[in-house]
Description:
It is a single chain. This protein has a single domain (21-142), classed as Beta Barrel (Lipocalin). It is 17% helix and 48% strand. A hairpin with a 5-residue loop joins strand 1 and strand 2. The protein has an eight-stranded antiparallel β-barrel with strand order 1-2-3-4-5-6-7-8. The protein has helices spanning 2-19, 136-142; strands at residues 22-31, 37-44, 49-56, 62-71, 76-84, 90-98, 104-108, 113-121. The longest helix is centred in the first third of the chain and has 18 residues, at 2-19.
Amino acid sequence: xxxxxxxxxxxxxxxxxxxxxxxxxxxxxxxxxxxxxxxxxxxxxxxxxxxxxxxxxxxxxxxxxxxxxxxxxxxxxxxxxxxxxxxxxxxxxxxxxxxxxxxxxxxxxxxxxxxxxxxxxxxxxxxxxxxxxxxxxxxxxxx
Length: 143
């Protein structure tokens, strides 16, 4: 019985540590050269960060989710995330970013790439930004 009480106490101590993520806040970036704005609620899960948010190419939003971690040898954050675009299309991205400026570069599975520009702590007020390239979705549909 004593072992059962000790085991129960140990599990009770661990549950708050394992079941709740600690939010680091909402952070927003622009997917240059496109007009898309990405905002993620970043939750710390220990050595990994969970990303849940949206990709906004214009007045509408697409759900996005992924993960990030710190690559200690290069002192860079590496992010991988997926955006669920319209018509069943997916945007799958990899980002490498500077740990101080939070700026970086992105690539996707189609071979597109660009700068991943940190816009600040979000959520941002509704913004429709222009770009000569238009939105990411319009680009991949035209390919």
